[in-house]
């Protein structure tokens, strides 16, 4: 958390506000945010950069500058971006950086657990950066096909839940939306990824896209820290079919939702709709 829908919601809010604006002054207070680069150096390099666009790749926010550089922001568990923000760093003990734009407004980066990262890439480095991390396809784009999933999962014995979380098959899918997608596809989270049939993969592709699209429509899920740049809470948590609903009835069959661990993460599923078949 945040996952693709939350990051896309933040991107959509920021893009019209930041495009064309110049980073007039940058203060980065947390050395963990930019390590191994010193925060003072990164802040100095960012000052004077003019924003060309605000994009997204998986769970990364991508601020593209007119210079050809890119600022990659990964929110990890509790990162968030606020605009407009007031009061500077002193207004919130969890603020880690503040950017003053040339229109006089401030953009604040907030991160309770301090796992988020900022990385400034030079022109031409972006594609190589993502290739080195083996980031998979964008699940809401046309190139995200059943055949692409077949290639990603071929021969893999890891549980399908773990295979979804490692980002090589579908960039941006995390714990929440993996559980929701597997419920929609009627696939048990412990099924070996390489054992899924083409019919099951088609159902999984559809389930992933439906879960993510609903998440975007509901402006993401607010469980603790997430909010959009204006401070508004998401509403996707009101639409969960399995995530966080242990003991509650399945919306499809009425069976009590159960919780297990898969891929090292808490995992919710319906034991009736998502039976563990040999494979």
Task: Compute the average pLDDT.
Answer: 97
CATH topology of the largest domain: N-terminal domain of MutM-like DNA repair proteins
Highest-level CATH class of the largest domain: Alpha Beta
Number of helical segments?
8
- Give the CA-based shape: globular
Rounded to the nearest angstrom, the radius of gyration is 20 Å
Helix percentage: 25-40%
User: What proportion strand?
Assistant: 15-25%
Oligomer: single chain
What CATH architecture of the largest domain do you see? Alpha-Beta Barrel
How many individual domains? Answer: 2
SSE layout:
Blueprint: H1 4-18, E1 23-28, H2 31-34, H3 39-46, E2 51-57, E3 60-65, E4 70-74, E5 79-85, E6 95-101, E7 106-111, E8 117-121, H4 126-132, H5 146-153, H6 160-165, H7 175-185, H8 198-217, E9 258-262, E10 265-269
Antiparallel strand pairs: 1-6, 2-3, 3-4, 4-8, 5-7, 6-7, 9-10
């Amino acid at each position: 958390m945040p996952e693709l829908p939350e990051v896309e919601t933040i991107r959509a809010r920021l893009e019209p506000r930041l495009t064309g604006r110049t980073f007039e002054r940058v203060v980065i207070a947390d050395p963990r945010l930019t390590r191994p680069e010193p925060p003072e150096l990164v802040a100095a390099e960012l000052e004077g950069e003019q924003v060309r666009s605000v994009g997204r790749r998986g769970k990364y926010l991508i601020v593209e500058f007119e210079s050809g550089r890119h600022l990659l922001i990964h929110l990890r568990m509790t990162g968030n971006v606020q605009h407009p923000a007031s009061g500077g760093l002193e207004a919130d003990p969890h603020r880690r950086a503040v950017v003053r734009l040339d229109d006089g407004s401030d953009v604040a980066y907030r991160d309770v657990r301090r796992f988020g990262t900022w990385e400034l890439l030079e022109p031409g480095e972006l594609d190589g950066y993502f290739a080195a991390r083996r980031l998979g396809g964008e699940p809401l784009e046309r190139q995200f096909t059943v055949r692409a999933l077949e290639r990603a999962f071929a021969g893999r014995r890891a549980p399908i839940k773990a295979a979804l979380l490692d980002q090589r098959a579908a960039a941006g899918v995390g714990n929440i939306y993996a559980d929701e997608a597997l419920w929609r596809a009627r696939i048990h989270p412990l099924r070996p990824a390489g054992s899924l049939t083409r019919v099951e993969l088609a159902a999984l592709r559809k389930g992933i896209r439906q879960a993510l699209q609903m998440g975007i429509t509901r402006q993401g899920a607010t469980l603790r820290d997430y909010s959009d740049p204006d401070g508004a809470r998401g509403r996707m948590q009101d639409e969960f079919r399995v995530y966080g609903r242990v003991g509650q009835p399945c919306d499809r069959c009425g069976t009590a939702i159960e919780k297990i661990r898969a891929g090292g993460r808490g995992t919710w599923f319906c034991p009736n709709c998502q039976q563990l078949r040999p494979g």
